[in-house]
Specification:
Length: 255
């Protein structure tokens, strides 16, 4: 393994709040446990296990860790990796991030190799890092291919954001876009990578996550407020996205 690729396993305590700060060197990290909220300017992101992120040098960000804290593996990307990511049209200047089940598996395996010290560990770690970078590059390529949706499709997406918790049906969304439902469905998936329904469910679960951190509204009340049919409907969709039930999420973030 190249000597310059140093791996650091960092543990962050529960409820740690890190004020705005920046780093002098670019870095990549993979989350292998816990969760946290990160703010970059006005952008808010929730990271959990299986998230990989790149941070350019000098980018200011702040973090708020949940009730279980978090664990990350942090490393400085090699120049040749950054060249590869740039060739993949990964928007490195925007601090890109991606999450997948593949990254969860790679993160777990990388931690095992860090803990293990035999004649093959260095090569194994290098191979896993290359897999992580390659997967990150693929994510950037897919995002770049979808980077410029037409104005009518952006209008449909904005309509979803503005009315995420209201009862919506494809005919109404298609009328806003001025396109046939089939055309809308096909182009929406092509540019945004998911169906209209999956995108809408994500917006609703993200709103539910924010409400769970606020005043102690009941989960059933939050479910209805966010457009879900019932408490159980919210629980099912929430766990599919965050890996936790709403009750578990609230307990971890507010305990």
């Amino acid at each position: 393994m190249p000597a310059q690729t140093q791996l650091h396993v960092r543990d962050y305590p529960a409820h740690l709040s890190m004020p705005p700060h920046h780093h002098c060197e670019a870095s990549m990290n993979i989350v292998i446990g816990g969760d946290f909220l990160e703010r970059i300017g006005t952008d808010e992101r929730i990271y959990a296990r299986g998230h990989v992120a790149y941070f350019p040098a000098g980018m200011t960000h702040s973090q708020l860790f949940g009730a279980c804290g978090a664990r990350q593996i942090i490393f400085r990307p090699e120049d040749r990796w950054l060249d590869y990511l740039a060739d993949c049209r990964t928007p490195l200047g925007d601090a890109p991030h991606a999450q997948s089940a593949v990254f969860r598996q790679l993160g777990d395996r990388l931690l095992e190799e860090i803990r293990g010290q035999d004649d093959f560990s260095a090569v194994a770690r290098e191979g896993l890092l290359l897999e992580i970078v390659a997967g990150f590059g693929r994510s950037g390529t897919r995002a770049a291919a979808r980077a410029r949706p037409p104005a009518w499709l952006r209008a449909a997406r904005d309509f979803l954001h503005e009315n995420a918790c209201a009862p919506l049906a494809m005919p109404a969304i298609a009328r806003v876009a001025g396109r046939h439902e089939i055309h809308l469905a096909r182009e929406f998936r092509r540019f945004y990578g998911v169906s209209v329904g999956a995108y809408l469910r994500r917006l609703r679960t993200e709103r539910a996550a924010r409400l769970l951190l606020g005043p102690q509204s009941g989960i059933s009340e939050i479910a209805l407020d966010c457009g879900f049919a019932s408490h159980s409907h919210l629980c099912r969709e929430f766990k599919a996205q965050f890996g936790l039930t709403p009750s578990q999420y609230r307990a971890r973030r507010t305990a």
